Amino acid sequence: MIDSLVPRSDFPLLATHPILRYLDSAATSQKPRAVIDAISNYYETVNANPHRGAYALSAAATEAYQHSRDGIATFLGVADTDTLIFTRGTTESLNLVAATWGRTNVRAGDRVVVTRMEHHANFVPWQQLCLAAGAEFRIAELTPLGEIDMPGLAALITPNTKIVAFGHVSNALGTINDIATIAQLAHAVGAVAVCDGAQAVPHIAVTFDSLGVDFYAFSGHKMLGPMGIGGLVSSRAILDTMPPYQMGGDMIAMVGDAQTSWNVLPHKFEAGTPNVEGAVGLAAAVEYLSDVGLSRIHAHEMALVDMAMRMLGELPGVRVLGPPSERRSGVVSFVVDGVHPHDLSQLLDADSIAVRAGHHCAQPLMRASGVPATTRASFYLYNSEADVTALVTAVERASRKLAH
Ligand code: PLP
After folding, report:
1. pLDDT on residue 205
2. How far is the CA of 401 from the centre of ligand 1 (A)?
3. CATH homologous superfamily of 8-30+293-402
4. Is 130 a catalytic residue?
5. Is the predicted pLDDT of residue 378 greater than 70, yes or no?
6. Which of 331, 361, 376 to mutate to test the pocket of ligand 1 (most atoms within 8 A of CB)?
7. 3-state secondary structure of 182
8. Phi, psi at residue 152, to the nearest 5°?
9. pLDDT at 53 over 90
10. Angle at 369 (CA atoms; ends 329, 142), nearest 5 degrees
C-alpha cells in the first residue's frame, strides 16, 4: 500500500476537505501550513516596502526578500543568486525572454524552433515574436508515444535558428525531455536554449547550473508556493546584454531628463514594488520540498503513475496518452471512447475526485493527437494509492454510465 509521502494534515485545505481526492497538482498544488504561516508571519511582523525606506522595518523586508531569493537559488542549483529574476510565474518569464532577448536578436529570415508539446505560454510568445519580426516559426513534431522526435528536431535547428524553446516536462502528457541534448543542438548553431520548467521544478531535482540551457522558467504555485510568484534563471553574461522588460521604480540606476541607466541584476528586471510575500512563501515551499527530498517525491509519483496507467489501461475503451511511466513525471492523460472529458470530470467531481479536463493549454498538441481534449490526473507528494484506486473505480463507473 503506497501511503502519501507527507501527512495530508500538513495541508490545511486537504484537512478541511477530508474526502477530496486532489488530482490536479499540475494545474496548481495545495499549500502546506509552513507556507501559509510564513506568509502570515511576514505580514504580521515584517511588512514594509523593501529597498526604499531608511527605517529598520524596510530593511527587514529587504532582508526577507533577499533571504528568500538566496534559498530559492540554492534549491535550483543557481550559484549566482542575482541571476534568479522573480516574475509572476512561467508565463511572465517566457514573455520576458521573448520581449527582451527575442525582440533584440530575432530578425527577418531568422528561425525560432519550438516543439509540438509546448504549453501555450511557451508557444504563443515565440509565434507572435516571429510574426512581428518576419522570422520563421517551426514546430518539432512528436513520436506516437508523445516524445520529441529528436532527429526531426535536429533537422529543424538550422544555422539561421536564434531560439530553441522547449519544455522540461510536458503538462499534458508528463513526458520528461532530454533537455541537455536539445540545448547542445541549439548551441551548435549559436541559438539560445529556452526551457519551460513549470512541470519539472516541483517534481524532479533541477540544478540549473548543470542543465546547459540559457533560460529556465518556473512557477511557484505548482511547487507548494503561492500564486503570483515564479522566476527566470539565466546567466549574467546573457542577462547583462538584454534590455529591461518593464520600466519603473527599482529597475533604474539614474533617471536623467533625456536618458536613464539601469540598475544591476536582478533589479534591472524587477520593476515596481516586488512580491515579497510571494518570495517568502516560495522560500518556505522549497524548504518543505528539500526536507522531503526531490528524489523521494519523484519515486513516489512514478509509483502512483505506474499504477494509474496500468489500472486505467485495463479498463475497456480507455487509452492513456504519452510515454511509459519511467519516462514521465506525475501526469496521466487519458481518453475514454465515446465519453467527453468534461462529462467524465463532472461525474468524478461528484465522487470528490478533482481532475482536469480540456486541452491543457496545449491546443497544437491536441490537434496533432487527434483528440479535442483529455482527462488529466496529476499526482503529488500528498497523493496515495487510495487516490489511484478511487480514480480508477470512478472512471470505470462513469464510463459505463456515459458511453454510448
Ligand atoms: N508551462 C507549463 C508546462 C505549464 O504547465 C504551465 C501551467 O500550467 C505554464 C507554462 C504556465 O504557468 P503559469 O500559469 O504559472 O505562468
Report:
1. 97
2. 33
3. Aspartate Aminotransferase, domain 1 (3.90.1150.10)
4. no
5. yes
6. 361
7. helix
8. -65, -45
9. no
10. 65
Q: Give CA–CA dist 193/186, Å, rounded.
A: 6
Instruction: List pLDDT tens digits, range 159-212.
Output: 999 999 999 999 999 999 999 999 999 999 999 999 999 999 999 999 999 999
Compute, in angstroms, the gap from residue 367 CA to the centroid of ligand 1. 19
Whole-number Å distance between alpha carbons of 76 and 73: 5
Is it true that domain 36-290 has CATH number 3.40.640.10? Answer: yes
**404 Cβ contact partners less than 8 Å away, ≥ 6 residues apart:** 338
Q: Which ligand 1 atom is the nearest neighbour of the CA of 88?
A: 16
From the CA of 316, how far away is ligand 1's center (Å)?
32
What the block records as the C-alpha cell of 225 is 508556493
Instruction: Choose among 145, 157, 189, 186: nearest CA to 324.
Output: 145
Measured between alpha carbons, how far is 198 from 218 in angstroms, rounded to an integer? 4
Global pTM reads 0.98
Which of 72, 78, 361, 388 is catalytic? The answer is 361
Tell me which residue has cell 512580491: 275
Give residue limits of the domains in the chain: 8-30+293-402, 36-290
Specify the residue for cell string 506525475. 330
The residues near 345 (Cβ < 8 Å, ≥ 6 apart) are: 355, 356, 357, 375
> 295 to each of 209, 300, 339, how far by Cα in Å?
18, 9, 36
Specify the amino acid at residue 195. Answer: C
